[in-house]
């Protein structure tokens, strides 16, 4: 199992980046990211993983403001820790009954046996970086997958 070392680049993959998409619901966006994780071999059973992510959403929605959501799932079907990223053309309501609108979704997948709490480390790194208005603006506007990949790989762990 790969462990998060000093940057998010350890778990971010270019083939897990979807740009300029159109989704109207949280579940549709999550299904698309989970499908990609399945196709790239990061998970062994997509329905099991999707259920773990949706169960986490039921505990507490993961929209954090600034048009961003950071859903995550911890499951035995995750083969290697990963982060998927989805950018939509139009914002949409993340959770029914809440007003939070999102355009940027970071899906974090971690194995059930995860002593190092990789997802918490990345959420911390990402949250700090997302306070930077210029960084958020770049993620919202960039249409080139390679450029987004470089941006996301630039996120460093707190020292």
How is this fold's topology laid out?
Layout: E1 12-21, H1 26-39, H2 46-59, E2 63-65, E3 68-69, E4 72-75, E5 82-93, E6 101-111, H3 118-130, H4 133-141, H5 145-153
Parallel strand pairs: 1-5, 3-6, 4-6
Antiparallel strand pairs: 2-3, 5-6
Helix pairs in contact: 1-2
**Structural class by secondary-structure content:** alpha/beta
Low-confidence stretches: 1-7
Oligomer: single chain
**Morphology:** globular
- Rg from alpha-carbon coordinates: 14 Å
Helix content: 25-40%
Number of extended strands? 6
Average the pLDDT over all residues and give the rounded result: 87
**What is the tally of helical segments?**
5
- Run of helices and strands: EHHEEEEEHHH
Largest sheet: 6 strands, mixed
Distance between the termini: 23 Å
Beta-strand residue fraction:
25-35%
Précis, in short:
The protein is built from 5 helices and 6 strands, in the order βααβββββααα. It is an alpha/beta fold and 159 residues long.
Structural summary, described in words:
The protein starts with 11 loop residues before the first strand and ends in a 6-residue tail after the last helix. A hairpin with a 2-residue loop joins strand 2 and strand 3. By secondary structure, the chain is an alpha/beta fold. It has helices at residues 26-39, 46-59, 118-130, 133-141, 145-153; strands spanning 12-21, 63-65, 68-69, 72-75, 82-93, 101-111. The protein contains five helices and six strands, in the order E-H-H-E-E-E-E-E-H-H-H. Strands 1, 2, 3, 4, 5 and 6 form a six-stranded mixed beta sheet that branches. 37% of the residues lie in helices and 26% in strands. The longest helix is centred in the first third of the chain and has 14 residues, at 26-39. Helix 1 (26-39) runs antiparallel to helix 2.
């Amino acid at each position: 199992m790969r462990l998060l070392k000093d940057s998010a680049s350890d778990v971010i993959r270019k083939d897990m980046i979807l740009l300029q998409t159109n989704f109207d619901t949280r579940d549709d966006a999550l299904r698309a990211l989970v499908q990609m994780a399945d196709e790239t071999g990061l998970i062994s059973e997509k329905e099991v993983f999707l259920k773990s992510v949706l169960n986490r959403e039921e505990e507490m929605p993961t929209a954090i403001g600034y048009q961003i959501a950071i859903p995550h799932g911890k499951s035995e079907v995750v083969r290697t820790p990963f982060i998927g990223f989805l950018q939509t053309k139009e914002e949409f309501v993340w959770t029914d009954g809440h007003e939070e609108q999102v355009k940027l979704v970071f899906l974090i997948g971690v194995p059930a046996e995860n002593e190092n709490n990789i997802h918490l480390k990345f959420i911390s790194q990402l949250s700090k970086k997302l306070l930077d208005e210029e960084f958020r603006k770049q993620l919202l506007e960039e249409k080139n997958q390679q450029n987004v990949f470089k941006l996301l790989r630039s996120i460093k762990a707190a020292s």
